[in-house]
Amino acid sequence: MKRLCWYVVVIAVLGVGSVMAVEEAEYAVVLESQAFEVRRYEPHIIAETLVDGDFEGAGNRAFNRLFGYISGDNRTRQEIAMTAPVTQGAAGEKIAMTAPVGQQRTDGRWAVSFVMPASWSLETLPEPEDPAVTLREVPARYMAAVRYSGFWSEKGYQRNLEKLQSWMQEQGFREVGEPLWARYNAPFMPWFLRRNEILIPVEWPPASD
What we know:
Radius of gyration: 17 Å
Number of helices: 2
Strand content: 25-35%
Distance between the termini: 22 Å
Shape: globular
Oligomer: single chain
Helix content: 10-25%
């Protein structure tokens, strides 16, 4: 069953307490087993930036850079409708906030990304003003996933990563990419209500089939 979910979050950094809908990357669940899933993600575009630092600090440093891009720090000066609701912003093209915020290790640094709304393409997305922000298309792929709540800590990440990798080994899945840490909520969301996930690209079907 396809899932195109919408989350309502309060974006505190806007300073006005406004509520906005947040689009999630589209996927279909092809296997479900206890706390684990395998999903097929449709092709999508991400805005990405690379940062140095430790696990827990990297996402915070990158967030402002990426949020600046979707809030108007780009080359066009056109007001457009957000995904929902329709709003008007300051000068600059404003792009709908999406989920999740992704983070993974690459070449000794952290790659942090926002998924762009499905209504945009590489040709229509405005060029970032900040050269540290890049746009790229992620092809369709299968991802093993585990979902958990709790603080955004390296300890929690490692604990759930080990659970997911152990399950993948039991099922005969082969990793074909680096783990991705996905966060779906604003920082002020209570820790016990947060949706966190670890996603690992896998070969489908598993070798045991």
